[in-house]
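I hope you will forgive my troubling you with a question about protein structure. I should value your view on which stretches of the chain appear to form regular backbone elements. Here, with my thanks, is the record as I have it:
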Amino acid sequence: MVRPSLSLALVALSLLSTPALAQSRLPSFDLQRLQFEPSALGSFVVGTGRTLDAGVFRTSFQVHYEQQPLSFDERWDPAAGQSLVEGKFTTHLTAAYGVLSWLQVGAQVPFILNQSGTRTFTALPPSKTGLGTPWVSARVGLLSQKSGGPMNLALDVAGAVPVGSTEALAKDDYALYPRLQLGVQGSGFQVGGEVGALVRKKVDLGVLSLREHDVIGNELRIGATVTSLGGKKTRGELSVMTALPLEDGRMSTEVLLAIRRHALPWLDLYVLGGPGIGIASDTPSFRVIAGASFSNAKID
């Protein structure tokens, strides 16, 4: 009788432990959907078809806060409800260099300082800190107003380096982001836009949210911006970014307003932020970013 009792006890223990193990597992994907524009010739997040002049280098450091960047609540209410990730602080280091007058390379490296959340259904929150997914990019200028063209036009291709933290929801197995950027500079202003496709592994979060269409995957991304130019000290920017799912996901839109202060010829200080609109589970209800950029030449 001892052996059957022992066997039953082991079976019961395994059944009790299975839900706990299931709760601790999260799918592997990169939660950070924001891509910075490392040269910041347009806005900080939307390109305008321009490239840095040959030999010009720009680097920046920013601190980034997101409210509810992973939530399964369809309401827009930053103060209500519990989310798998309720608050997230990240630092970003970005750099861009003009190799030729028509060729620019760039990189950005995020690091999650802290994130917190509440267990949702069967999922536990991700790790609090970890390396984010670095990105490298190359941009080829096709048309330039400096060279007499009717507009600025460029092709930009960015790729993820899959070394981020899986436990912190900061790693895609692969991700590629080609986009076409265009813009026009006027007297004291510039307008621009970009359209591209984010290609990455499909991840179905429905097992966590218990609802349909919570899919992380390929997206058609569209961005538009209007910025002031020529100001000696201050520059304003307005950017709108929309992501249209290509794999049964949910639409996402963000509106970001930025103020850039030219503190010194080689130093800019800035702040930007705004709400996320839509019902995509990985869209924050709002984000706020503050940072500083350094360059070896006056850019704008």
